[in-house]
Write a structure and sequence with these properties.
The chain is built from 9 helices and no strands. The protein has 219 residues and is mainly alpha-helical. The chain has one domain: Arp2/3 complex 21 kDa subunit ARPC3.
Length: 219
């Protein structure tokens, strides 16, 4: 009986948190200066609600919730996703497009379920803060992998754009091929993922004051 009650509570809380995460993400997507022209953009801790679920109910439930969130993000990003398959400059070979979707959406958002990995090791504040950094860093790595493999051809163009710092040429003189693609992906994705990590970690330190956020039984 208790297990059923806990599961029902977890489903309800997860649904609410997914809705919060989507709402925050949608609001931030409407703000031009925090979104990059070729994909990506930081938000005001839109992933924190998913990380809170992972902290409250454990990693298994957190991963399930994060997976559902990843599917929602892919559906909401339909215009971007569909561009990979439809004729045009963004079109890819179908199998590459599928892999990009899997890495940049399914993997990148599902790993947020690891945000509760420190829940039994530290106090709530530290666990949420460290969990946020860890989970979003995993998402950052997923984007680095995807960017280096599938978008690395943009590297030379990226570092030679007007307004790019002078060290862009230093990078081009130092790296080439796969190494340049990796450096490009680290820098490009870092422009929005690093601020995301910092913002979420800061917010995580404050939300612990909400009495409802406490560790429940793992599901």
């Amino acid at each position: 009986m208790k297990e059923n009650k806990t599961r029902t509570e977890a489903i309800t809380v997860s649904a609410i948190m997914i809705a919060f995460a989507i709402a925050i993400s949608a609001i931030c997507a409407a703000v031009p200066f925090i979104n990059l022209p070729f994909g990506g953009g930081f938000t005001i801790a839109s992933m924190l609600p998913i990380i809170i679920v992972a902290y409250m109910y454990g990693t298994k439930w957190g991963l399930l919730t994060a997976f559902v969130y990843s599917i929602m993000q892919m559906l909401l990003g339909f215009n971007t996703v569909s561009a990979f398959f439809l004729p045009g400059d963004s079109q890819m070979v179908w199998w590459r497009a599928i892999i990009v979707c899997l890495i940049d959406y399914v993997v990148a958002y599902t790993v947020l379920g690891f945000g509760g990995i420190f829940r039994k090791k530290f106090s709530t504040g530290k666990a949420l803060c460290l969990g946020s950094v860890f989970a979003i860093a995993l998402r950052y790595i997923a984007h680095i992998v995807s960017g280096a493999i599938f978008f690395g051809t943009w590297a030379e163009w990226f570092f030679t754009q007007d307004g790019f710092p002078a060290w862009g040429q230093v990078i081009l003189d130092t790296f080439s091929g796969d190494a340049l693609a990796i450096v490009y992906s680290v820098i490009y994705n870092g422009t929005y993922m690093i601020p995301e990590i910092i913002i979420t970690a800061i917010f995580a330190c404050f939300v612990v004051r909400i009495p409802q956020i406490k560790m429940r039984d793992e599901i």
